[in-house]
User: What shape does this take?
Amino acid sequence: MTKPDVAQERKNQIVRATVDCISRYGYHNFSMQDVAKTAGVSKGIIHYYFLNKDDLMMSVLGKVVSDIGNVMHSDMSALDDPIKKLEIFIEVCFDIVRSTREYYQVNMDFWTQINQKEEVRSVIAKHYVKFRKTCTQVLEEGVEKGVFQNVNPTEYSSFIIASIDGMSLQWLFDDSAFDYDKIVKQVTSWIVSGILTK
Amino acid sequence: MTKPDVAQERKNQIVRATVDCISRYGYHNFSMQDVAKTAGVSKGIIHYYFLNKDDLMMSVLGKVVSDIGNVMHSDMSALDDPIKKLEIFIEVCFDIVRSTREYYQVNMDFWTQINQKEEVRSVIAKHYVKFRKTCTQVLEEGVEKGVFQNVNPTEYSSFIIASIDGMSLQWLFDDSAFDYDKIVKQVTSWIVSGILTK
Amino acid sequence: MTKPDVAQERKNQIVRATVDCISRYGYHNFSMQDVAKTAGVSKGIIHYYFLNKDDLMMSVLGKVVSDIGNVMHSDMSALDDPIKKLEIFIEVCFDIVRSTREYYQVNMDFWTQINQKEEVRSVIAKHYVKFRKTCTQVLEEGVEKGVFQNVNPTEYSSFIIASIDGMSLQWLFDDSAFDYDKIVKQVTSWIVSGILTK
Amino acid sequence: MTKPDVAQERKNQIVRATVDCISRYGYHNFSMQDVAKTAGVSKGIIHYYFLNKDDLMMSVLGKVVSDIGNVMHSDMSALDDPIKKLEIFIEVCFDIVRSTREYYQVNMDFWTQINQKEEVRSVIAKHYVKFRKTCTQVLEEGVEKGVFQNVNPTEYSSFIIASIDGMSLQWLFDDSAFDYDKIVKQVTSWIVSGILTK
DNA sequence: CATGAATGAGATTTCATTCAT
DNA sequence: GATGAATGAAATCTCATTCAT
Assistant: This one.
């Protein structure tokens, strides 16, 4: 059978269409009709697969968050040098923003919901926990090997991720403010040299 | 004149009410009716003072951005020591987030509009230009006095501001993730020691 | 001012239009749009005066129930003879059904809701309490004067009202089944003679 | 044949499920989906056996009406005494309401349709014709035997049935209004003594 | 200036019905 | 026969905006 899971495929199709719509029309300026048109399906079928718009949006958030999370986990295990590993981690993170700019923004759009919808806040919070954990592992390895100073790895992870998010924001607000590639390298160097044993 | 622009006072009143509503009901979930009730005025009068909801929102953005900007400029000129000055700058910034958490969140809510409304993007971009400039001045003073390394001050400003925004985000997503006061001090120390001449 | 209470007048106008719609299209086959058109107003204004369709329907029920209740209280106090009084009470009741057939049916339409909406059931129940009380007073007077047997007046009231409702139902189902005027007289006589002291 | 009409059995199954749904969700608040789930069949198959929802509803009405009709015809022929016979007829009728309260309510729900759907009105009207006829036969027997007064039996049948329906209504609206068992006996006595030869 | 009744476009959602499999 | 995915009409409800008073 070439029809292993029509339902799942349809759901994916609708979620993808929704991401498109958010990108194009804005987080709260798209209608179910828009999603239907984009996905090439009828309005009704969306409510067949998703309880309501909220439910659909939670699926979108889930996808965005997990997609970003998945990219981050891409082969770092192959590397031995903690410094190289950290540099690559940072590079990959910055790359997500640059190469999926609209996608990262859709992710950002959910931030407006953290005060109104506990579930949204919770998903994002968990994403950051995982995010920090990934980074922490890299740092701990370096600390163990004596390459990195004995800082609190979780705290320094927060700091690293904060720098990446913060720089990305400034770039999204104004991509002529600085040369992204150049400043990414600069920031990476500041972050890395900040933790290197003297 | 003892009649200092009643119109302006009315506009302020409405804008303040709107900030309240965004905080309470969410950026996309409040109505002009809500604003009217909160401000204690009629629905009609809002459209007398503001062209439409968009116009009102731009005024809100203007207020939020300038309020935050104003806090930052508070007495740093009195200090002589560049290190102390930088530390205070960072502290003040973090304080804005902590002490006006909801307010900062309203500011953040506008970030989701940068793709849809060029004017919003532009206002935020200008805010960050000013923000960086303030920081840059502090850094330049330190570089001049030989206390700070000869890094590109604008780039390091971006980095500083990025750290502040990024840490604040993580805290807004989950205020149990770390002790804000403690990590603020830690991050401040990392930022400062990263630029000190060895 | 000839505009003492625009709001109340509008509400009445909408409620009246709703009764019309229920009569014409059926209890669950009319839309807010229909009501708007019938009342000659816009769809939106209905939701300005009524929270939602349910709220509107409760107002309709209130009106129907109280209108019917009001008719029943029409001058019986003038009469002295308990028998005459009872006969007139019964006549008035039957008259309500005959002369406001559609109206009585709208009232009936709410009966489908008694299992789903406690408030509906409660309003109807209270209406019947009042209904029985009115009848009971007539009976008690007759018992006191020794004209009526010493039956339980509330129970006999229930029986009287039951006969009226039940006969009306059969007539509504098939108005060719019997001559309404004739059978009303017959039933009245059975009811009255059933309580007369021998 | 040992395959006694699978189709009929399926139809019954669906009709029964519909009665359940009306009871549970209300006459106007259940969907074909609900029926399908309750019957344990697919949504599609319902439209295979029934033309549409209206058609299904007519089948439900048919079932409800004939079920109630059937109960009424149960063993009265064995009795000789017309008084006893009449008492039992009344008792059985009241029993239908008490013992199948929800069922009787479903029957009542159709009453609201008599204005909109001639077919519904007609079925109900025919049901009452049969109902009255059954009662009339009991009365005629008593008149013939000189036990009952020479009233018009059809008219008195209407009156009897009206009392039963009317009392049941009041009870359905508020089952705390009176003790059903007690008042049933009382009403029975009033009805019977109203027709006894003096 | 100020009010709030009124409008109407448009959003979400439900659901009877169809039809390919 | 049987399924359930798919459709699309229609319903309720919200809300920015207008305008007579």
In short: The CA atoms of residues 112 and 121 of chain C lie 10 Å apart. Residues 6-7, 10, 41-45, 48-49 of chain C lie near DNA strand E (CB under 10 Å from a C1'). Chain C has a mean pLDDT of 93.
